[in-house]
Amino acid sequence: MSVNYNNETKTFTLTGKNLCYAFWINDLGYPEHLYFGAPIGSDDLRFTRAFGATSMAATPPGIDNVPSYNAYPSELSFFGTGDYREPAVQVVNPSGDRLCELLFDSYEVVSLKPKISGMPSLDGGETLIIHLKDRLNRFAADLYYTVYDDCSVIARRAVYKNLGASEIRLERAYSFSLALPDRSYEMLSLYGVWAKERHIDRIPLHHGVVSIDSKRTTSSATLNPFMALLRPDTSESHGEAIGVNLVYSSSYVLKAEVNPDGTTQLTGGINDFDFNWKLAPGEEFETPEAVIAYSDEGIGGMSRAFHDAYREHLINKRFVKSPRPLLINNWEATYFNFDVPKLCAIADAVNGLGIDTLVLDDGWFGKRDNDTSGLGDWVVNTEKLHGGLKAIIDHVHSLGMKFGLWFEPEMVSEDSDLFRAHPDWTIGVPDRKRCYSRHQFVLDLTRKDVRDHIVKAVSDIIENNEIDYVKWDYNRNVTESWSYCLEAERQMEFAHRYALGFYDICERIVNGHPDVFFEGCSGGGARFDPAVLYYFPQIWTSDDSDAEERTKIQYGTSVVYPLSSMSCHVSVCPNHQTNHTTPFETRAIIAHLGATGYELDSTRFTEEEKAAVKRQTEAYKKSEDLVLTGDLYRIDSPFETEFFTEAIVAKDKSKAELICYRRFSSINNEIKRVKMAGLDPQATYRLEEKGIVAKGSTFMNVGFAPDFPRHDFYALKYHFTEI
Ligand code: GLA
Description:
- The protein is an alpha+beta fold.
- The chain has 13 helices and 36 strands.
- The protein folds into 3 domains: about 1-315, Beta-galactosidase, Chain A, domain 5, CATH 2.70.98; about 325-630, TIM Barrel (Alpha-Beta Barrel), CATH 3.20.20.70; about 635-720, Sandwich (Immunoglobulin-like).
- About 20% of the residues lie in helices and about 30% in strands.
- Strands 6, 7, 8, 9, 11, 12, 14, 15, 19 and 20 form a 10-stranded antiparallel sheet that branches. An 8-stranded parallel barrel has the order 21-22-23-26-27-28-29-30, surrounded by 5 helices.
- β8 and β9 (about 155-160) form a beta hairpin.
- α4 (about 340-350) runs parallel beside α5 (about 390-400), α7 (about 450-465) packs parallel to α8 and α11 (about 585-590) runs parallel beside α12 (about 605-630).
- The radius of gyration is 27 Å and the shape is globular.
- The relative contact order is 0.09.
- The structure holds alpha-D-galactopyranose.
């Protein structure tokens, strides 16, 4: 990886693994984008400049007969001086004008990547910082670019500064602009809802803006903070793919805009809807990081770029590649209806089966026998749990297992001691009634006193009990965004301040307990984003635990996020969400494509089921390193076919697994041939289950027919070993 500056051509060239990014400082001092794509020669790229659609263009201020700012591929579009594209930044100056003209001032290259204060970001790489200044010296922007030699991503962000003597207001403060050379792109995004998270959408761009966003003060299940631009012929394994993913957990926006000159501009960051930010003299505003992946090996190549980036530079190094807790969770087994003997029995029933952790879910605290009360009262309910948590923990530990506990730290029930004591700690406007959602309200994390209380309450439980694992849930979206503690003209800072508050309590609770393993969750997988992954090495992917539905949810999630980040559980059938009945083995094979566990009443296991669980966990442990560190190749999409086929291949290509799933069995089937992917074409492999020995190239080009029996919802797993 390298950052180079050519003084003669005034060109910055950033070279990362399988990518190159170049821009130059043009004669106006404007950082003009030149190239983003596959590695190229270190040539003077200015011959590639081209201008189109210039009629009615406004020149830069004060200079006649020069192309407009609108005409230059931008590193950071700004508003009011002739650029009519979506600006990345808009200020309101003391006089009420909204102009800024951000031109090159200086640059620096740093080898230790600067952190963003109060926000998670990637580490490592080499970073270029471009300092831009407004002509009037009242406002500045620093553009950060980081490249890596071990993953094909570039990390971008901006920092905005008030250099003047008076307060200014930021009306929009996006993280980046990215200029693309033409308009021949389609947008791929991940949409969803509770129990149907991260399904795939793909639509062509058109003249104007195509955008996705969240206005929910969370990254949301509705649209993941991710957008990919693909060439129309880009497939899973071929063609160009550019993906952008925001390391951010609050309201965001991503936009792809096709301009009259036939170019495309990608931009985004914090959602400017319902946002503005007061910037006092001398103050700066840091934006969240945008991770931009490039691949010329299709959507799959882009996914592997994100997976590598997150495993190497985002997720907690202590846990990211270590074996995960193989747990049993009591939620679908008992819901709120449990006591100490029942929980101990659940643990006893899996003793010796390879399950190493019992996670006690919702309902152990306050007055919480259903979801109408108790949130916020993080005090053990000893009426329900005689002997307290200690009774369960001692028992679980005596079995050699670890113990995990559920929290929903950001929430409060109306019927709770916390709400009765501090109604003003809840988000809401005092003279209006509040919206309920799952009968609960959201605590105002913009307030330090509220955050301090949460940190203490959760930490006390963790520290006064032997807790090895925490599941951190977040089960509703914010409404009535308003805080008692913000002055009126700062209320539109709320959504971002909530994110900062969330990161603050994560920093103190998660990083404050480095030996405890934390899992993220949000009514299933509604807050599945890189910022959460920074604190929580894995996230509950969806409350839909049906294997058939999970093929889609996990396939879509893997477009951006590594398998090891997805929590996937084997649950009971008929499935509680869909009523489907799928084979036990299928449920295990699909759930083992992630950080796995079981979520059913193990006290009802038959001897046969116990033997199956033992077999399954042994198999999982043998291939866990592939889940944690391997390369994922998606082969058949469950969105487009009856099949879900994926391969995970070791980085050194010495072994691989192939997972083949068929939705429905039918009579006189067409032949289904699966071509393996990701093997070393020259190496020789043994396909263990069939005893076949062949070259990687043979398995990848000729393929073979998986042995699907006459059964619906059937999954098979094959192992390849290099010999
Ligand atoms: C959410 C989670 C579930 C479970 C319940 C408990 O829905 O996604 O896994 O923890 O909350 O209330």
